[in-house]
Design brief:
alpha/beta, globular
């Protein structure tokens, strides 16, 4: 399973209002629950916040990868938000975050979860990719640039 298959264009959000880490996670939780009937926004939010309490998912360079398991999640779900203004995410380098890649996985998805997180980290650790995402001027361009970066990162072995 590749990131590309679980991140449709409608879940790539452009110029999302930030404010705070909590607001960004609330926004995503509400958004994803509206688009995925099996998910409850409060549960998604509480699981994402619970994960943040274990340690910030801000990986540095203005990037955060909030992620959580969810028993009502039937398959992995990804969302990408480019924030209108960077927010403090308690990132490892102390920099504010403006690129947020959210990952929700089924309760039992151990290997898949780790593999997807690894893919996200690989894509988002690339300075050129981050720059391209920050310079995208529309939701479609943002999704296209993200998809290109995922394709560059993921080997084309046919097993994705």
């Amino acid at each position: 399973m590749s990131l590309e298959t679980i991140l449709p264009p409608e879940r790539t959000l452009f110029a999302v209002p930030g404010g705070s880490k909590k607001r960004v996670l609330e926004f995503f939780s509400t958004f994803i629950a509206q688009n995925t009937p099996s998910l409850d926004s409060q549960e998604v939010f509480s699981r994402l916040i619970g994960r943040e309490r274990l340690g910030s998912t801000g990986i540095g360079h203005g990037v955060a990868i909030p992620h959580a398991r969810n028993p009502h999640c039937k398959a992995p779900i990804a969302g990408f938000l480019r924030l209108a203004e960077p927010v403090d995410f308690d990132a490892v380098d102390g920099d504010p975050v403006d690129l947020v890649f959210v990952l929700l996985v089924p309760e039992e998805a151990d290997d898949a979860h780790l593999a997807l997180l690894g893919q996200v980290a690989g894509v988002m650790n690339d300075a050129e990719t981050r720059s391209a995402l920050r310079h995208a001027e529309s939701q479609q361009e943002l999704h296209d640039r993200l998809t290109e970066a995922i394709r560059r990162q993921t080997p084309a072995d046919g097993n994705g």
